[in-house]
## 1
Amino acid sequence: MVSIDEAIKAVLEHSNTISLEINLPLESAGNSILFKDVIAPIHMPPFRQSAMDGYALNLHEDTTYSLIGEVKAGDSQQPLLSRGEATRIFTGAPVPDSANAVVVQEKVVLKGENIVVERNPVKEQNVRPIAEQVKKGEVALKKGTRLTPAAIGYLSSLGVTEISVYKKPSVAIVATGNELIEAGKALTYGKIYESNSVMLKSALLSCGFDAISIHKVKDNYNETREKIRNVIAGNDVVLISGGISVGDYDFVGKALKELGIDQVFYKVNQKPGKPLFFGKNEDTILFALPGNPAAALTCFYMYVYASLQKMTGADNTLTKVTATSTSYFQKKGDRPQFLKAIFKDGKVTISEGQSSAMLQTFAVANALVQMPGELEEIKINDTVEVLLLPV
């Protein structure tokens, strides 16, 4: 059994970046990682641009200006302003070369064909200069940058339509268990609706991974072994849900051994999620997750998430912050524990109902409180370590 830190270190060391470049339409590249630097094809902005609705001025000593027209966003005309002249202008519109400042409309009084400003602005006030954000030929975004919505918008503003990113790994989810039936079917005695595969797929999608397949297998050794063999052959990552403990009908561990999967570690000193297996088969990463849903999801966020980030060119684990606890919690046992919680404004509330089988509290959680093994209780106003979930 390994510690949490040892498990994270091992996952990152064995999760090699998939060094395959693919080109995607920009609008389809969200959450991807840039494979190489993006060079700006134009200046941004490409012309002097008004930052405000107001008036573009050719400054002089007086505060009264002759008004000679207007410039809207998208206009291509270049009105020529002499000293003491102004033109109406709107946010985003091109500032005439003959203007050297923009005054906001709230600071102007309109008097017939003239305007009077409260005071003359300084030169270039409220004017966005050419290439204020980036110059043509400069690096607009560096290799390894995650394409957030803001990054997508920024590149689109530069006229970029296609982008080079790291290939995202393909992920197969294998759900095991005789007791599992598909939602929507009649629930008979002794059966439960299968939720882990749907949950894990949703977690993958929310993190930007969409090459996902789902597979189901009963508690049968031969079927389990062959299903795992098949999904390993066609995927970069395999997530197995359930069957990894040591019960009479837990066949995953035996199947992995027979298939020659290299075990990196089995069991982590934590609660929930102790019976976690992590291994490799040539270029395929394999996690066998606990069957209890809250334990499976905790292991996903702690280890699978880190592995997938590393494989796509990033090197991220969950963001860790400190917070003030608004709750009292007493731990049973001496294992480190991950507690489902709600974090807001520097404070964290530990949820009631921490069972590894319960998703109700996880459904509203946005964080995990990491409670060290030697700590027996968390008191109200204690400072605790909090892991923020990527939700």
Note: The longest helix spans residues 293-311.
## 2
Amino acid sequence: MLLWSLSTLVNYKGTLGALLSDGYAEVTGETKCFELWVLVDADKHEWSKHISISLPPLWKNIVTEDRLYFVGVTGTDEIVLSPRYLSEPYSFYVYYYNNESNTIRRIEIQGMDAFRHCKIRLSLNHVEDVKLLQYI
């Protein structure tokens, strides 16, 4: 497997994985499928195509005009995608795709108007200790 800058490295069930989309870095409503590759043997640089994901027909209706990028994989094996910029009228959605049930969830994050001209990057499993802020 050729790992290139268009793939996104993820933690898939405790193993290094890479998500690829039709040879592009972005995923759109026109995207039909993407692939999840898993590292089998690091010493031999051996990868295995774990899943070839065919997106359901509803995908196009849910994503509409957004250009999405892979964020990662959750602990429940959902693939997370998000745009890098807010879409008009300044709404921001995060998409969760579950390959086992072939379902998509779109979650709106409100209050993002202040970031309409900024590039947005999400990260999974980030935790802040808010208690420390009380003592500053």
Note: The first helix runs from residue 58 to 63.
## 3
Amino acid sequence: MALILDGEGSTVGTASPAAGGDLIKVGSTESFMADVIEASNSVPVVVDFWAPWCGPCKTLGPLLEKLVRQMNGAIRMVKINVDENQQLAAQLRVQSVPTVYGFRQGRPVDAFAGALPESQIKQFLSALTGGTANPVDDLLAEADGALEGGDAEGALALYQQVLQVDQGNTKAIAGYLRALVANGQTGDAAQILSQLPAEMLADPAIAAAKTKLELAQESAGPVPELRARVEADPDDHQARYDLANALYAADQPEAAVAELLDLFRRDRDWNDGAARQRLLKVFEALGPGHPVAVSGRRRLSSLLFA
């Protein structure tokens, strides 16, 4: 992704050639003393021994770079091509690639070989830095909490901080989109979605945010007004349907599902079964393991076979 825009057209996350320039270097036998041994006296250094012909290296290398950038200066990375630095690789007993060493205080203190999953690499980097947590993970948790607590503007600012460090973070992109919708900025969310590549649109979190936007665009007013209409006339099915859409857009999926189930209970055939169709769409967007989806499917089944 080259660019994400905020509501005013300014940059939220951009690809920057200089980003991580001091944190990630291409090393060699000649520069190893300065880049790794000496540098690790000030900050831990992770060394990635790789080769152009190595398939797993093409996965591990970019993942390591991303996580090192996310550590925001708490660790540095040096990439060593073993084909061009065979003597150095032999000295460090690199028997296969990828092999990753962690240096601290001028000495290798940890290592692993092969492509590990992201969670294990995070643990490796955290241990190398003395337990430093990944700040992106902390920011994401804080942003999610702000959004769930109804602070859409605060969440936007926090997701933006993540994207400035990691522009391709799909969780942050999805959260930013959800926060825009919750803040009433549906046009801005639609603009960002139009810029995302197909592989990102296929990500479950981003697909769920897209569904949230679609539901928000279909709602016919703010939650308080729609709720007042439903309370005034409980058999106003359109108002209840619109209320469910508005509730889901406002990050209240449990309340949205409750309204749709009530609508289905009252008139399952209304508008060609719109309540059931919308419930299925919401369940798909939430994901099969989401508690609201699990409970909602169970309640829908009981109504279907009642």
Note: The two ends are 49 Å apart (CA to CA).
